[in-house]
Design a protein that fits this description.
Layout: E1 2-6, E2 20-23, E3 30-34, E4 44-48, H1 51-59, H2 66-82, H3 87-95, H4 102-122, H5 125-161, E5 167-171, H6 186-195, E6 199-205, H7 212-224, E7 228-231, H8 236-241, E8 247-250, E9 254-256, E10 261-264, H9 267-276, E11 281-284, E12 290-291, H10 308-311, E13 312-313, E14 327-328, E15 341-344, E16 351-354, E17 357-359, H11 364-375
Bound molecules: 5-S-methyl-1-O-phosphono-5-thio-D-ribulose (MRU).
5-S-methyl-1-O-phosphono-5-thio-D-ribulose binds at residues 61, 64-67, 101, 173, 175, 179, 184-185, 212, 251-253, 263-264, 340.
Pathway: Amino-acid biosynthesis; L-methionine biosynthesis via salvage pathway; L-methionine from S-methyl-5-thio-alpha-D-ribose 1-phosphate: step 1/6
Function: Catalyzes the interconversion of methylthioribose-1-phosphate (MTR-1-P) into methylthioribulose-1-phosphate (MTRu-1-P).
EC number: 5.3.1.23
Length: 380
């Protein structure tokens, strides 16, 4: 079950946006999410008391973006365990809530493994629930740390590629604090450049159809005080042609073993434009987004979203899952093609920036070496 409660909208640094948190009131543990479908007009929290409410929140994009989906999935397992639900069933429902972002299943599986190990060791479901929660909290902390390290590596790369500073960066979708335990992935790099006075402008693609750029990235950019300009996705071409873009920074939902990058639909056209205009196309993602079990781009499952997201303008009150209810943009009955993501082949990616360092050029061998380095670091 999920309840909604409004919270006052005082100004905060992006890192202080309370995207997701665990609380234990007397009625029992809850997972509290900032409902991203209501931004930027309202800051409303969604209180999940069970995993099925969280599954619904994930499908409706109340919580979204690869790293935080992993964190949410892990807390979802902990919630099911703490509330005495069937943990395996909850884990399965959570893992399959959205197919493309690999972080979701990484987070769910990690908390589930912690739960099962503790149950096997102690036979005590309460101890197992505590272990699942500790695992989710560790993932949450690690993501914040990874975010800071990605920002540092990404800023170093921007400075290396453009030693003069004054970076004009184009970004797509939303990759800031709203998707992370920290300040995000691609947006965190732009924020780091802004803080040291080297970001001249952040170009923000509106990101049709659900407007994560306009609603969320512009909201985060405004809070950070950086210079930013919103554009329609289709205006990116003329912006490149005018020589106004020095680099493209995007996140990723899944990176295949060959370096193919699944990210919000519209990323691939930006990569093609960037190549044509000799502009670096940089992907920023934690190592958990690299999926060694997915060999190539063709093997990535791309989520297909309902057509009404394209044929209607959804108001915050209209359900993004249950079927329309928004303002019609197209004649009734119009069919829509609505993949949530597209896949950029590795040859169009200048670099992949992770918390473990930067891979450039992007090759299967370099990615495998990075993953091996990361696996050598123990996790909770
Ligand atoms: C660091 S976030 C990377 C991606 O998850 C992000 O760019 C994206 O595509 C999110 O899509 P969404 O459908 O809003 O979950």
């Amino acid at each position: 079950m999920a309840d909604q409660q409004a919270r006052p909208g005082e100004d905060k640094r992006p890192s202080e946006i309370p995207v997701i948190r665990w609380e234990e009131p007397p009625e029992g543990p809850v997972l509290i999410l900032l409902d991203q479908t209501r931004l930027p007009s309202e800051e409303v929290e969604l209180v999940c008391t069970d995993a099925s409410a969280l599954v619904e929140a994930i499908r409706s994009l109340a919580v979204r973006g690869a790293p935080v989906l992993g964190i949410a999935g892990a807390y979802g397992v902990a919630l099911a365990a703490a509330r005495g639900f069937d943990v395996d069933e909850a884990a399965e429902a959570l893992e399959s809530a959205r197919p493309t972002a690999v972080n979701l299943s990484v987070g769910v599986r990690r908390a589930l493994a912690a739960y099962r190990d503790a149950l096997a060791a102690t036979g005590d479901p309460t101890a197992a629930a505590t272990a699942a929660l500790a695992s989710a909290q560790a993932l949450h902390r690690e993501d914040a740390e990874a975010s800071a390290r990605m920002a540092a590596h990404g800023l170093a790369l921007l400075d290396e590629l453009m030693p003069g500073g004054g970076h004009r960066v184009l970004t797509h979708c939303n990759t800031g604090a709203l998707v992370s335990g920290g300040e995000g992935t691609a947006f965190a790099v732009a924020l780091a450049a802004h803080r040291v006075g080297r970001l001249r402008r952040l170009w923000v693609d509106e990101t049709r159809p659900l407007l994560q750029g306009a609603r969320l990235t512009a909201w985060e950019a405004a809070r950070s005080g950086m210079a930013y300009t919103l554009l329609t996705d289709s205006a990116a071409g003329s912006l490149f042609a005018a020589g106004e873009v020095d680099a493209v920074l995007v996140g990723a939902d899944r990176i295949a073993a060959d370096g193919s990058v699944a990210n919000k639909v519209g990323s691939y056209p930006l990569a093609v434009l960037a190549r044509y205009h000799h502009v670096p196309f940089i992907v920023v993602a934690p190592v958990t987004t690299i999926d060694p079990d997915t060999p190539d781009g063709a093997s990535i499952e791309v989520e297909q979203r309902p057509g009404f997201e394209v044929t209607e303008i959804l108001t915050p009150q209209a359900s993004a899952v249950g079927g329309g209810g928004g303002v019609p943009l197209a004649p009734l009955g119009t069919q829509a093609y609505n993949p949530a993501f597209d896949v950029t082949p590795p040859e169009l990616v200048t670099a992949i920036v992770t918390e473990e360092g930067t891979v450039s050029p992007v090759t299967p061998e370099a990615l495998a070496a990075l993953c091996a380095r990361s696996r050598a670091t123990p996790t909770a």
